[in-house]
């Protein structure tokens, strides 16, 4: 590419509304532009990186034996009614009508569509296992779209869905996907951790998230220094030590039951009879629109009439009890109401955590009850505040007894689930088994946030000059800067020659032939984060040299013109 004929839309100023560094740098480096909240255009520079991420994901998925498909972004409501999610999904589902008044949604995920396809296409166990994936645009009407493409409303996801006759086969493919994800994030050059995650929301039996470690991450992950134990915070807080963890099929209820001391304290406080006492403590806080962080939600046993839980039971709270809307629950818990463990229709109470009295509660009182020690609601509820949690968990023994715990912030870039038969059962997706009987399919699903990865990579790789791309996903691998090329035919010619040579050797090269001051060009190339820079100047050519500087090198160095290629390799 010649920079003079390419949209290099760099900006000096840091955009005011961009809070985190990846968002700022993606705007400043001319990678993306905002159209509306959570909607972004990928400019040529950004799209190059996005496509490289896609390519790596695609290659590794293909290698794993998965087959690529492409499903429609717009989905008919009937399928979602069949699975039950038309009612359950809440505010993130963008619903719409066609000209005949029929209901549709813009797909936030594709379990229904793929299950519908497979129930028609696959007939026999002999065709199993099968894994289908796509790289495609999703829409989720996020309550707080932010951080640019990190939490967008329209974004690119790789989603895969596998189909099996039994759990063993599902387990096998699940492990293949786990390895495939590790290969993908290794190739992307990212520092990441696979962690155990809660699968309650989707209803399956196992789930892992892949987190890119970065201080700006919205999630917290905990891992052991002495073993492979790693979990996201929701999982870690509620998990029994590995030894006595219930089998996956067992009642998830136990896993989520808060400690006895907590139940008693909260029940006493709310003056609730034990059978209606606290079922689940929601340990995830999120900022509301006013920037107030940390909604605290209690899910109580049984059905409640909120009017019966008297306001005077919660002194100091002006509007003590409100029935949370589906959307609020979804935002507070990060999952859908009615789907946490086996508790049907949990009745939530959401209380402002600023209510001082909540400080009285110490939740997850002790290790015996499988909670973190001494977590204090007032102080720790917004779990986004890893700094606070660090005091609580860091240095504690790992639940598996090996090593001590560390806590870090993470960006969720991938998520794999064993879905079991949730969708296949609801939608009657079967194949004939060895005995010619219809068998409900077992399913797995596997997501990667392709566009989010671009932002996550920048969070991990930048300095005060700009982005520092891992070579594998740099928009260009090499920049050739010609100094005064518009005035000096020798320089222009040498630049062109080098450009052709490197291109033929397979490099993605940007020839910066713009009629700009050297300082401007250098600053742009550093901001964009191109790993290698070669400068062609009259003075250098006179001495038979080019000037080389790697993106993170302290010093530049001169190299003989004819050695440029061998130097880069
Ligand atoms: P989050 O917890 O960040 O909201 P999620 O758990 O809702 O993500 P999944 O349903 O697991 O997301 O989707 C698979 C992947 O899609 C996620 O791991 C993430 O990388 C990506 N993703 C989800 N929501 C967004 C979004 N709003 N913008 C960009 N990428 C997203
Ligand atoms: Mg989400
Ligand atoms: Mg998540
Ligand atoms: Mg997820």
TrEMBL record:
GO terms assigned for molecular function: aminoacyl-tRNA deacylase activity; ATP binding; proline-tRNA ligase activity
Any GO BP annotation: prolyl-tRNA aminoacylation
Keywords: Aminoacyl-tRNA synthetase, ATP-binding, Cytoplasm, Ligase, Nucleotide-binding, Protein biosynthesis
Gene3D superfamilies, sorted: Anticodon-binding domain, Bira Bifunctional Protein, Domain 2
Entries under CDD domains matching the protein: ProRS-INS, ProRS_anticodon_short, ProRS_core_prok
PANTHER family (alphabetical): MITOCHONDRIAL RIBOSOME PROTEIN L39/PROLYL-TRNA LIGASE FAMILY MEMBER (PTHR42753), PROLINE--TRNA LIGASE (PTHR42753:SF2)
Protein name as catalogued: Proline--tRNA ligase
Provenance organism: Marinobacter oulmenensis
């Amino acid at each position: 590419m010649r920079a003079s004929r390419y949209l290099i839309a760099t900006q000096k100023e840091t955009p005011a509304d961009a809070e985190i560094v990846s968002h700022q740098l993606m705007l400043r480096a001319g990678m993306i532009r905002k159209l509306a909240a959570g909607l972004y255009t990928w400019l040529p520079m950004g799209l190059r990186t996005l496509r490289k991420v896609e390519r790596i994901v695609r290659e590794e998925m293909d290698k794993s034996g998965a087959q690529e498909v492409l499903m429609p972004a717009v989905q008919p409501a009937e399928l979602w009614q069949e699975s039950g999610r038309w009612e359950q999904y809440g505010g993130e589902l963008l619903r719409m009508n066609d000209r005949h008044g029929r209901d549709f949604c813009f797909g936030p995920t594709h379990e229904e569509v793929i299950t519908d396809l497979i129930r028609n296409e696959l007939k026999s166990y002999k065709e199993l296992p099968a894994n289908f994936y796509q790289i495609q645009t999703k829409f989720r009407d996020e309550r707080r779209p932010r951080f640019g493409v990190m939490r967008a409303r329209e974004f690119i996801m790789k989603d895969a869905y596998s189909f099996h006759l039994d759990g063993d086969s599902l387990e096998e493919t699940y492990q293949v996907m786990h390895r495939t994800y590790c290969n993908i994030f290794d190739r992307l050059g990212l520092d990441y951790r696979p962690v155990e995650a809660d699968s309650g929301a989707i209803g399956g039996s196992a789930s892992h998230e892949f987190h890119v470690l970065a201080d700006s991450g919205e999630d917290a992950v905990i891992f052991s220094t002495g073993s492979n134990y790693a979990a996201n915070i929701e999982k870690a807080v509620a998990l029994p030590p590995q030894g006595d963890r219930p089998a996956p099929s067992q009642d998830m209820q136990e896993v989520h039951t808060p400690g006895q001391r907590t139940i008693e304290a909260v029940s006493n406080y709310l003056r609730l009879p034990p059978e209606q006492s606290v079922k689940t403590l929601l340990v995830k806080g999120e900022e509301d629109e006013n920037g107030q962080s940390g909604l605290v939600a209690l899910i109580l046993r049984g059905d409640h009439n909120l009017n019966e839980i008297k306001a005077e039971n919660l002194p100091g709270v002006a509007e003590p009890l409100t029935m949370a809307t589906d959307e609020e629950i979804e935002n507070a818990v990060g999952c859908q109401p009615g789907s946490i463990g086996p508790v049907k229709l949990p009745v939530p109470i959401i209380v402002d955590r600023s209510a001082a009295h909540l400080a009285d509660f110490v939740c997850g009182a002790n290790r015996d009850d499988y909670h973190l020690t001494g977590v204090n609601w007032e102080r720790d509820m917004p779990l986004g505040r890893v700094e606070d949690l660090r005091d609580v968990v860091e240095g504690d023994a790992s639940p598996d007894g090996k090593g001590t715990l560390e806590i870090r912030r993470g960006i969720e870039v991938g998520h794999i689930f064993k879905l079991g038969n949730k969708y296949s059962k609801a939608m009657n997706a079967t194949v004939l088994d060895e005995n010619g009987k219809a068998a409900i399919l077992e399913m797995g699903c596997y997501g990667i946030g392709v566009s989010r990865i671009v932002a996550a990579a920048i969070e991990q790789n930048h300095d005060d000059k700009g982005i520092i791309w891992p070579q594998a996903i740099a928009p260009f691998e090499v920049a050739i800067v010609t100094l005064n090329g518009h005035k000096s035919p020798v320089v222009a010619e040498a630049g062109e020659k080098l450009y052709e040579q490197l291109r033929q050797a397979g490099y993605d090269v940007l020839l910066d032939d713009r009629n700009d001051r050297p300082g401007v060009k250098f600053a742009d190339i550093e901001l964009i984060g191109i790993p290698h820079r070669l400068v062609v100047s009259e003075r250098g050519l006179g001495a038979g040299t080019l000037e080389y500087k790697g993106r993170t090198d302290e010093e530049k160095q001169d190299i003989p013109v004819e050695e440029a290629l061998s130097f880069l390799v």
